[in-house]
Structure formats: C-alpha cells, structure tokens
Amino acid sequence: MYALSDKWLRFKVLAGVFFRQKFVLGYAIASGLVLAGSFLLIYVMMHDKGSTAVLHYNVYFGVDLIGNWYALYKLPFLGLLFFTLHTGLALLFFQTEKMLSHLLLFMGAVLVVMQCGATVLLILANQ
Q: Which in 2, 36, 40, 103 has the greatest CB count within 10 A?
C-alpha cells in the first residue's frame, strides 16, 4: 500500500508541475475556448431549426447522412475527448520526453481546431 501511495504522490507533484507550464496552459485555454465556441455555435445556430439536420456532407455525393440536430454535438465532444487523451499522454511523457509532450499538446490543439472547422462547415451546410 505504501508503494501505491508513493507513486500517487509523485504523480500529483508531476501533474502540478505539468499544469503550471505556460505552454500547457496556453494550449488548454485556447482549445477550451475553441471547444466552447463550437458548442455555443451549434446551440445558437441549430437549436430552433427543426428536428433534422445534415450530419455529413460529401463533395461527390452531397448530403449522405441526416439525423437529429443535437447529433451535431458529437463533433465537439469528440474534439474534447481527443484533446483530453493527448493531454493525458503529454502528462505521462512530460518527465522523460518534453518534446513529445509539446508535440502531443500541439496536435491535440490542431485536432480541436480542425473539429471546429468541420462544425462550421456542417452548420453552413444546414443553412
């Protein structure tokens, strides 16, 4: 039991140091703002449009998936999941591989921005 407690204490200290880094805070705040904007954009633009919405648009075939408008929330939740996973992996690699930690956080933020772009394009397809 002592070994588990000791490992947990070391992890808490490492997490405290990790989340006080400026680059971690920058990526987290920027990604949080983009995700909040995605959620807000879906709510403002789609909540009173009716029961169905375009969920997928293909350049070659046009609209190929229609469903409930609230299914559009899957994209921001997926972006949140990816950013959380990337942040967790960056925390695990922070002590040994700082460059990999930076790369994971950067790629998590890039995925969030790409998800926001996909959300905007889907909302435009629904207009």
A: 103
